[in-house]
Amino acid sequence: MPFHKLEQRLEEISVSKKFDGVTISKSALEKFYSGCAHRYLEYRQWNLKEKYMPAPLRKGIAAHHAIENLINGGDVDAIAEEYGATAVGVAERAVNWLEKNDYKVLATEERHIAPLIKDIQFYGVIDVVAEAPNGDYLIIDWKTSYKPWQIRTLESGEKIYIDAQGWQGPVYLTPPYSSDIIRVEDWPIQMLYVVIPTTGSIGEYPYYKNDYDDAALRVTCRQFAEAKRTGNFPKNKGWQCRNCDFLHSCWKTKGWEKYYEAR
Length: 263
Prior knowledge:
CATH class: Alpha Beta
Number of domains: 1
Largest sheet: 6 strands, mixed
Oligomer: single chain
CATH topology: Lambda Exonuclease, Chain A
């Protein structure tokens, strides 16, 4: 899950100091390939203050925290007081879904540090590592949304969920250096995006590890590593700036500092 506070927690364990190569997070990849490479540099310097975050992002962060707390036995009233009744409602639906499907939770908010190639590794935070009733391991990623994700039919007849085709799958399904949960050789090959919409039923959208996406990830990370080596993160200025979280810090608008906290 790509939330800035969790990314900050990961940086505090000083992964890069133990590794001579380049350490890349999923969030960094998303910023770098978001249409403006410079967005990554802004992301590295600034956190958007919560009160200036888009409402869906604020609600999503609160829901994730509430789900984690409820799974780990937190008090419902205390969770509601800290994160709000809406977040608790989302958390209760998530926990009910886990129980209904008989998934055994092995870990929540799992720090994932994995080697990609000899000079590149990446990290992230996994929402849930679970065991299915058939004994298979899988990764679960919670998503909040106004409505369920749309199914797209390809020319071949295959039905896919484009929203489930991002970097999260290939990054989190890459086996880590080590794991206290399960054997590295048994690391999951399936990731399940679980969308808890404001309206409608919970949706389940599977992603499976595959050679094509793994190869694409290696190429992508090499491009990112080269940009870090050269310091080349050009700005793509224009209409896309309007909805960018870093519009004010990038353009240095009047009073821009009020929107951010330094990382």
